[in-house]
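Researcher: Batch entry, complex prediction.
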Amino acid sequence: MSQTADTAMTAPHDTTAQDHLPQLHRPRNPGLPLDLDWVARVQANTSAIERRAATLPGRRTVKKAYQAAWLARAVTCIDLTTLAGDDTAGRVRRLCAKARQPVRADLLSALGLPAITTGAVCVYHEMVEVAVEALAGTGIPVAAVSTGFPAGLSPYHLRVQEIGESVKAGAAEIDIVISRRHVLTGDWQALYDEMREFRAACGPAHVKAILATGELGTLRNVARASLVCMMAGADFIKTSTGKEGVNATLPVSLTMIRAIRAYEAATGIKIGYKPAGGISKAKDALVYLSLMKEELGDDWLRPDLFRFGASSLLGDIERQLEHHVTGAYSAGWRHPMA
Amino acid sequence: MTTREIFETMDYGPAPESAAEALDWIATRGPAFGHFIDGGFTRPGQTFATRNPATGVELAQITQGTQDDVDAAIAAATKAFPKWAKLSCHARAKYLYALARLLQKHARLFAVLETLDNGKPVREARDIDIPLAQRHFYHHAGLAQLRDAELPGHAPIGVCGQVIPWNFPLLMLAWKIAPALAAGNTVVLKPAEYTSLTALLFGQICQEAGLPKGVVNIVTGDGRTGEAIVTHPGTAKIAFTGSTAVGRRIREQTAGMGKSLTLELGGKSPYIVFDDADIDSAIEGLVDAIWFNQGQVCCAGSRLLVQEGIAGDFHTRLKARMAKLRVGDPLDKCIDMGALVDPVQLAAIKRMVDANTEGQTHHAPVALPDGGCFYPPTLITGLSTASPLMQDEIFGPVLVSTTFRTPVEAVEIANNTRYGLAATLWTENLNLALDIAPKLAAGVVWVNATNLFDAAAPFGGVRESGFGREGGWEGLSAYLKPTAKQAPIRPIAPFPAPEASTAPEAPGIDRTAKLYIGGKQARPDGGYSQAIWSRRGKLLGHAGIGNRKDIRNAVEAARGAGGWAKATAHNRAQVLYFIAENLSARGDEFARRLRDLTACAQARAEAEVAATIERLFSYAAWADKMDGRVAQVPIRGVALAMREPVGVIGALAPDEAPLLGLVSLFAPAIAMGNRVVVVPSRAYPLAATDLYQVLDTSDLPGGVVNMVTGDVQDLGQTLAAHADVDALWSFAGGVDAARLEAASSGNLKRTWINSDAPDWLARNAEGRAFLDQATEVRTIWVPYGE
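Model: Structure tokens for the complex:
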């Protein structure tokens, strides 16, 4: 888990898109010994958090060129995702092609923006090799969901092994799912140990800890689980698999990024954040970006510390960008599908 | 900046709300405005400029209301009153509903106009002020509909003079006009001179709603216009929101005029953070507490009390949050703080902060626009309770802070203030929250939240933050009066001493009536007594002549008996029953005494004793039945409108029923947990002094009821001026209400100085009217959810 080992993991990519690779910019999270006192002190007042979340969209807004620039920035933070039982190599290649050129070149040119890509492509293990091949030379990392995603209830040793397999297959990022039962029973030591082992198994690959917040019962649990995962070395914390009944919400996001802020205050280490599931509108993306800017800072407006786990969001952003260029509302079929 | 540059910097950029429609309205309807009187706009008179405080640019010319203007408005309101009052509840409800709808239809125009005139962020006007104003009219449309069904025996008061501040111009107008109209009153309202425009737009809305002429009148102008309304003999009720200094002046000016009065004044509200709180949420709450509306909020959480162990971390995180606040063009939808209302206000804030030499002052490192009335979010830490800035209202974006060690100390520091408007407390411990909330001297308490408002939830202060409630049934009742029959109070002179030549009858063993203070019989400090004669010239005994010092001692005893407020209502009821029981045992003796004192018929005397026993039973019954309510506010949570004792009540008892009248005052007071200093009838004091022996044997703790006999005006005057007396009641004859009410302005105590009284033997001489006076509503907001 040394930083030298981590920074070595840059070889497969060219230099044009190194933005995506956090290890180039900042030290990885070495973690901390489990501090149960700190975990026990963590509070999250649900109604207060909901009020803050509810009023934020009214307090911050971006218009005109600012909105266009922010939306383009949002695109660079998308983990373009397919996690379906009917995924095939062809389908994944199409997704990767979209990740390479997520927004029509003429629109970017009209906006005066450079070529952009999405933040990553996110797939199941079986699709990792196809995706890595399809993205070769682009610098776009492949993220693999892992550890018995989405429920995380397969045999423990297989979950750990799955990480190794995906890393071997070329995944630069591993999205692990935690054992929700450890949170629900307050077994923070077990959660910490599990996360520690997952992190170790990732080696140089970045690890995102999926908390499945929709299954954790309370925001206080979300806050405590966030903290324990960061103590155990998570590079990112992520809300959801997209398969729970409730996925990313603003109150959950606020809870998690406040945990990130507390962790940075204590350690100096910046942890990334990935809301996933349910973010499908350009307007939502802007609210999330303003949330990150307000609560954490501008560092979290880049793909090395912020990702959207989303599939349909990109389409809405494309339409909004075209509207910005032409002044007329756009249509879905005018933009290449993923 | 190019899109590509923004793509790198990720700045917010400008997000201006258009002012075009609002400016167009001003140009069309103005730009010089007259008043809205008798359903129409008058021609502009002598005018002054109203400016956009963010730019200094003149928006419009506003007419300075003259005495003639005020006379005309009050005449219109007076003329409109009988018909409006006689309308059916449903008819009035329909008008209020129409006003609510029209406010909604013109929501953005109101919001932008408010922002232009006041300098508040358009987000706040758009998302808070205007929606709350609409909600107020909707809620009161309902109260209007239900008035007769729910409040029988009440009638509107008449023409209401209403003077409102500049910090929430339309919202305060709604808080004033909606309940007045719902109750059936007519209105003459004066907006603040800095912010008249939305009130004038409201005049237009009244026309659109087809409101009968004269029901709502808007007269613009400065304090002189307000004074003309307040002191006008044609206004039956005055409702004022504004500074404590002006409120005190209004109390003095209206003293003795018989006007009903409600005052919502200043504050220095504590914001208490316990060490188990959700700190990030508590800090975010501070943004809404002290940087909402640039801190120009009467109930702003302006006094931060943090538990010592977390204070360092808390302040560090708070400063980080402050650095993220954006101060700028109020019309920008992406700012947190706009402009202060006027250069005068900016200068006042600067002066107060600059004069402070204590603690550490931290200005948020935020960019301020050039020009305009802008002041940065500011935190001053390390202050003590003795620091002037911990005591004085700044009315700006300046938070002052100190620390505490224990919950008890938090309450002590929180209550160490002349004010008592609002309080906020943060803890994740339910036991702690529900223990502390009722102990805070404040009319509104927010638990784990701040600055929550709703039409259904009573709002208002204690101490020098004023009296009266706005919102809900409690607010409506401030615009109604009981219709039950009352008669003017006539002074009754004591029977004169017989001619010197008449030899007094031979006495039995001398019974010395004393004062009753702190549960003990006390000789009057002055050492003087007054002989009490029967009509036939028989010496009935002597009553002590109490003086200032006796009142001082009695108030001290009453304040010291605070445990009575914490006794269970059941326990208080038991004591009242016991007093009745013991009085009953000596009923014959009391009847004889009444007969001798007042020269009434034996039957009348017996009836008074029986009624007194019954009255004690009534208030024993009420002791545990004056329930608060849970207001239906639109949040997930409860707003508990709790009935709290007022505190220490001074009461001047009536002459005409010396025993029953006395008990009719102190029984409701102590049933609700108050302590009383009562001045018995001057003519017949011995009815009272006999009673203290009954109290002595009835388990009533010392200091709960104190009696000081003597000159009712002198003693009343001392009580009225006493800063540790919370309320003054009078049913005494021959007192100078003007002097009493004027003296009460010192601590703005609640006064209930009556010139009419019920027949004390009648049913309407007891019940809710008395219990309402004996209680203060404290609204405790408890949002919940896990």
